[in-house]
Protein 1
Amino acid sequence: MHRLKAHVPALIALNNLDARKTGLECESLNDMDQLSAEMVAEFPERGMQWMKDRVEAAVNETGEYVREKPTQSLLYAFAVGYILNRLPLRLVLGGLIRLLLIALRPAILIYGAARLYKAAQERE
């Protein structure tokens, strides 16, 4: 629902852009380009807010579960601790860091392209 609310102003603005009403198709397309650049620039901010909300929800759910079933939670914690003690932690962390770097490169590229596009639109 939160994602839908974030798109409503952009959809209203796109709906209001009509080349037949203004008589200038080029002006309408320029407005749409700027609007899409703003939407692309907002993606990282919305992604961070979504991630923050999800982590907060997970922490709250975990806290509720621990309050409801403390002994089972304690057993799970010991089991996870034992497994992590037996795993080669260096290899696991190295794999996670490699996976993060692989996923981070396209995200940085998309963010840089959006900022470059926005800067080019501001110059015009």
Protein 2
Amino acid sequence: MGGTGVLMQGGIHPDLKIDWFESLFTASSQRFPKIWLHCLSASEILAIAEYSELTLRDTIIRLRDAGLDSIPGGGAEILDDEVRKRIARLKCRTEDWVAVHRTAHELGMRTTATMMFGVGETVEQRVNHFEVVRKLQEETGGFTASFPGASSLTTLPLAVADGMRPPPSSTLRPSRLAVCISTTSSTYSPAGDTGP
């Protein structure tokens, strides 16, 4: 079919422990050895570690050894805990998201960073998000891409009808800001989380 990679994020389930994901990644890698596995958000990896009673480091090592190639930046939303508490209170805190990506980078894996803007955050909170990503990139060099995307809440027909959709200039600003701040990322992509 011409595919070269798989992006998989599916949520958190307490019955899906490390051995389930190891089996999935090992079978996928054996059957399709040329397919790049870009899978699991930071929140999912943290949950797998918790449910499997493993350290974060050991969890990522086992996932990597089973065939996980890289980790997407999904679930980052806005890396500012004031915003996260309001829009994603069940997802991990900023420091936990950073810990997952830092650990993966230390283990030689590459990851991506995303931003979902348009959820009522301030410009300062957007800058805070980019600063978190920039600092980690300077420390590890492990991000292959960084890209912002508008929340689907701002693009749904109902949102447009209700006047919630931001003007085009406000959706371009985060993209321009990402380019300016993320000067050390090897790639910038406004298109979506496509992995390395």
Protein 3
Amino acid sequence: MTDPFVGQLAFLRVYSGNLKQGDTVYNPRREKNERVSRLLSNARQQAEEISEVYAGDIAAAVGLKHVSTGDTICDENAPVVLEPWISGARHLRGPSNPNQG
């Protein structure tokens, strides 16, 4: 998603540990390192800049140019690859798509 004020956003959930602004993360699928320039929380009506997220938190990261849906980011010294949880699109049946489902 692209925000007109901050640029490209990557939404993420922290499964373990923590993530801070300025941290370098590793994407094992693409075999690339990237730096998290900013972290944003959308817990309230407006996005708010935060310095750190912890296990269980959901946030948006700014600065990740080589991630896509389903990627795992981790510490390069302790790589983790989770199974992608999005495997394909589902289409609802309806008047315009009677054979889809």
Protein 4
Amino acid sequence: MTSVVDKLAWHRFTPEHVALILFAGAFLGFAVKVPIFPFHTWLPSAYCEAPTGTTILLTGAMSKMGLYGFLRILLPIFGPQMQIVLTPLLWMAVATVVLSAYAALAQKDLKRIFAYSSINHLGYCLLAIFAVAKFTGGDSALTADKYAAMNGVLLQMFNHGLTAGNALLVCRHAGKTERRFTRSE
């Protein structure tokens, strides 16, 4: 291990720098999958262009995998690195919530409305995950707050998967996505 540290010291990288670089790579991968602002641009197009069944799968399960990565990989493994960059992460989550809500209001296509509202709901989950990251450590007084935030994330993920998937399913069977809400392309 010392030889690796010595080789990294030649490039002026400390183990803390390497951990931060690894965190940044894992964060970027999960940030695109969640999606968090500004890595959200693929989701509205994917919802719009995909068949309704695929959109249901995207909203019900696939977008939750990014949050699961935050919960099971980034939070436990890269907790100290998350605390270092916590303020920008919180601002990105707030931007995800606010900007996607305004973008959903401006849409005419029903699937794009669902896409931006999904981004909005996932932004709330990210806010709770980053709140847990802020209070990681040995303080037992905050244990109940951490559990409450984690339970809120899991409940929001479950509720969003059920409600958004079922709403798209109802719209598909009612024919609203094909007849009334046509795309302006």
